[in-house]
Amino acid sequence: MFNKRIKIKELLLQPAGKKDIVVMGWVRTFRNNQFIALNDGSTNTNIQVVAPLGQFTDELLKRITTSSSLKISGELVSSQGKGQSVEVVAHSIEVLGDSDAEKYPLQPKKHSLEFLREIAHLRFRTNTFGSVFRVRHALAFAIHQFFHEKGFLYMHTPIVTTSDAEGAGEMFRVTTLPFDNPPRSEDGMIDFKEDFFGRSTHLTVSGQLEGELGATAFGEIYTFGPTFRAENSNTTRHLAEFWMIEPEMAFSDLEDNMNLAESFIKHIIGFVIQHNMEDLVFLDQRLAEEEKQLPADKRSEMGLIDKLRFVLDNDFERITYTEAIDILLNSAAYKKKKFQYEVKWGIDMQSEHERYLVEKHFKKPVIVTNYPKDIKAFYMRQNDDGKTVAAMDILAPGIGEIVGGSQREERLALLTQRMKDMHIAEDELWWYLDTRRFGTVPHAGFGLGFERMVLFVTGMTNIRDVIAFPRTPKSAEF
RNA sequence: UCCUCAGUAGCUCAGUUGGUUAGAGCAUCUGACUGUUAAUCAGAGGGUCACUGGUUCAAGUCCAGUCUGAGGAGCCA
User: Fold this and answer.
1) How long is the CA A294 to C1' B8 vector, in angstroms?
2) What does residue A70 show for φ and ψ, rounded to 5 degrees?
3) Which of A67, A66, A77, A84 shows the shortest CA–CA distance to A21?
4) What is the rounded distance in angstroms from the CA atom of residue A50 to the CA atom of residue A320?
5) DSSP for A96-141, written as a single string
């Protein structure tokens, strides 16, 4: 067996004196021809490996370069140096893989995030991305734990879909037709009957409609999978391929939905605080360092960890859309004409309005409910006032909309009327409407953009830095 | 897609009014040193100034277009 190693995270907790230790990892720095800072990705803290002078040949020592991979056997001793309490004295050093220092792009120095994006295949070997992706993993794990413990069923909804009815955004087409000379029907249109699935297909923009099918049988389900939008969005908050969590609950209304969303967000933040404090401390310091370069009024009032604790310890503010508009209309910012866009009942709130509510007025996450029906999707349940729907968005400081959800319209007649009004073809969604034909129930759900959650928890500011291999317009390297 | 800004060594950047052979720090290489903490000290190598075209006696510098990146907006999660 080759892998008899101890992970560095575990090794650092061991008392000095332990013999016959095997560690493997990649070299971060090699100082003084003696001291190797070795990292294996289990933690940002390196183990210091000491190669006593004279015990190893120059030929071997020359091969210990940044990011070369080593297998070290030795003994754990208390360190004579100041930076660490224990270190490994090497008895043997085996170079598993050389790394040509002249060609290796990462140096033991600070790199810009933009540069690291260009070498996304290697950026995991930096402290920042080490922490980000360990936190990302912990969040994913906590999500499954939360829903599992609540009795939700993890449902895998399809990636390739046939319905383009939801209108959640532009879609990527999936086809095997030759695009230089596709088959055409008599009217000159491309004949998708000849295509692989015998019809037009796309990558999914949401698993919600299929999720509702699951919820109306299992009661409570969630999805957690990749989602695709072919929008030409070039922002720090948008990806063409991103991961989304979409729970759906039968026998639930809008309030149940809000309660679920709030406890869900608190659970996963709590999990990371409990299990990833070392990474959070690093990210907290990184953010503080970053913000030093900003003008004073652009800096956040709280550090990263304080912000997460604050979210955990406080109830989210819950207001209706109508109340939100009133707050905006009565705000000093409005009266001083600080808003670029008009404020009046019926508008789809702009980023500046959401930011005002979250960052200036309430200074915490805000759940806005009961939006005008004209700016929301067809499946949202109509309220008795005839003007609004039972929708809810959760707005987070620095990120904006992090959750979008609603109670769904369970009444067939009202749902089909709404579809007619919005020119959505009923026959394409016959299977969806069957849930309302056979034992319909009040139900609700929401979607949470996973990467936006990772942004919030890590304090990173660009969504391309919290997914391993970002897909954005004109960019799909790796 | 729109607006703004940027692109000079492997990285981060400087480059004056358009004027001789384009600079610095870090990294790399060579040597010295050896309990270092992004080690230190000395020396060396390293450039299609994003690309294409234009103006000019002369362009890294001015103009136009293209590409790429960043920030903001829209769309949204």
Assistant:
1) 26
2) -130, 150
3) A77
4) 62
5) EE---TTT----SS---HHHHHHTTTTGGGSHHHHHHHHHHHHHHH
Burial class (CB in 10 A: 0-12, 13-18, 19+), A322: middle
Instruction: Give strand letter and number of the nucleotide nearest A32 (CA to C1').
Output: B36
pLDDT of residue A108: 80
Side chain identity, residue A268:
I
Name the closest nucleotide to A118, judged by C1' and CA: B69
> Which ipTM did the prediction report?
0.91
pLDDT the model gives residue A123: 95
Q: How far is the CA of A237 from the C1' of B77 (A)?
A: 9
Instruction: Return the pLDDT at A107.
Output: 85
Distance A288 CA to B40 C1' (A): 30
- Does A394 have pLDDT greater than 90? yes
Looking across all nucleic acid strands, the nucleotide with the smallest C1' to CA distance from residue A352 is B73
CA of A115 to C1' of B16 (A): 30
Q: What letter does residue A143 receive in the DSSP assignment?
A: H
Q: Which residues contact A295 (CB under 8 A, 6 or more apart)?
A: none
Residue A101, amino acid: A
Query: Is pLDDT of A165 > 70?
Result: no
Taking phi over 0 as left and psi of -120 to 50 as alpha, with beta for the rest, A463 belongs to alpha
Within 7 Å of a protein beta carbon, the nucleotides of strand B are 1-2, 10-13, 26-30, 33-39, 67-77
